[in-house]
Amino acid sequence: MLTERVIDLLADADGRVAQQFRPLLHALTRVENPATVVGWLAKSRSAKLLRDLAAAAEPITHDVLDQQPQTQPLHYIREVLVTTGVLTARDEHLERLRSWLERVLADKPSHHIRVVKPFAQWFVLRRARRSAIRNGDYRRGSADYARARILIALELLAWLDQHDLTLTALTQSVLDQWLEDGTTTRRTVRYFLGWAYERGLATKLDVPMTARTAPAVLLDEDDRIAQLRRCLTDETLGLDLRVAGALILLFAMPLTRVLRLRDTDVIRDVDNTHLLIDGHRLLLPPRLADLIQQLQARTGARSTLARIDRTPGWLFPGQIATRPAHDNAVASRLQRAGIDSFAGRNGARLALAADLPASVLADLTGLHITTALRWTTWAKRDWTQFVAARATSDSKRSFGPNEHDRL
């Protein structure tokens, strides 16, 4: 039945499956549980979209998909086609920026487009491409920030039109008033104004940086330890939530960083299990190491289509093999389970900053050294104590302040 349904899905008007779709036909008809794919074909909006694309009887390319409404079913189908080899892989968050820009500028005044489009293409997107090359990918958070810089430029230009002003005539006092009347997100306009000044489109203007203040949202130590214990012992929680929550609450790892861990980042030797973080081996407590080993061994929770290919080896796989789990979805599940990932991360950072020098904190958590220095300042520690402690007992592991003993 599955084979018949898939052929019906992918066949053209003559009942033939195009050569391009052969890898997808092969993948869909060789899953572990055929009934799940039969159900997906019958009910899924993604399957209906795939049927429509196949019926068009023309090769499917990324450009063809870019012309479609950019819905979640379309994004899912693109991932399936990439995973099965029908389409080549590309950096989706980076590529979506291009089509997003076209849609945003479509209804804007021509004098705004003449300024913002080159800013977006030659400053924002150029930086995005460099970041993707440097880091190996371009993440959703970076894409959101890129959009924010473009949108705030458009917002300023619209405001200038409303007040019969031009970008060239914008003065510091007028800019200060505009900044004062809005949220702190308006300060990202510094990128646009700096670019405009270098091209003679605006005078030199100053946009103050947002003041760095101590974190306002964090768990106190008792609540953090209680939530951490729950992650390690409460079997009613999902296994992936227990591992993600424990890594956040113990090692202050951002959720986005947790979800991008791969199976190969878990390193076992005879006695211990380590987590590889930016080339540094982080010793895991035995109970957490056991949970991670269970998570690696578990395959039943993965969606059927996600098992088409597991090449990337994500520790927290998403719906499709080429992507890890979505951070917003996991954060919502943690919140519903009573685990506050953001406040818990901040609480863990503060606890670590009270016992570690900034350089070790940066290596452990992936923070920039400047950010790590701010956290150690907030923790108000004298790091000469750390040096003295290491000189006294170099065998003690300082990170995870007594957490391994307490757990």
Description of the molecule:
The protein is mainly alpha-helical and 407 residues long. Strands 1-2-3 form a three-stranded antiparallel β-sheet. Residues 393-406 have low confidence and may be disordered. Helix 1 runs parallel beside helix 3. The protein is built from 21 helices and three strands. The protein starts with a helix and ends with a helix. The protein has helices spanning 2-10, 22-28, 34-43, 45-55, 62-66, 72-83, 92-105, 110-135, 140-162, 172-180, 190-198, 221-233, 239-251, 255-259, 286-297, 327-336, 341-353, 358-365, 369-379, 384-392, 403-406; strands at residues 266-268, 273-277, 280-283.
Question: Multimeric state of these chains?
Answer: single chain
How does the major sheet shape up?
Answer: 3 strands, antiparallel
Rg, rounded, reads 25 Å
Share of β-strand residues: under 5%
Mean of residue pLDDT values:
84
Helicity level, as a percent range? 55-70%
Helices and strands: which structural class?
Answer: mainly alpha
Number of helical stretches of at least 4 residues: 21
Annotation, overall tally of beta strands: 3
How do the strands of the widest beta sheet line up side by side?
1-2-3
Name the helix and strand elements from N-terminus to C-terminus, one letter apiece: HHHHHHHHHHHHHHEEEHHHHHHH
Taking the alpha carbons of the first and last residues, their distance comes to 52 Å
Principal-axis shape? flat
Task: Enumerate the spans where pLDDT stays under 50 for 5 or more consecutive residues.
Answer: 393-406
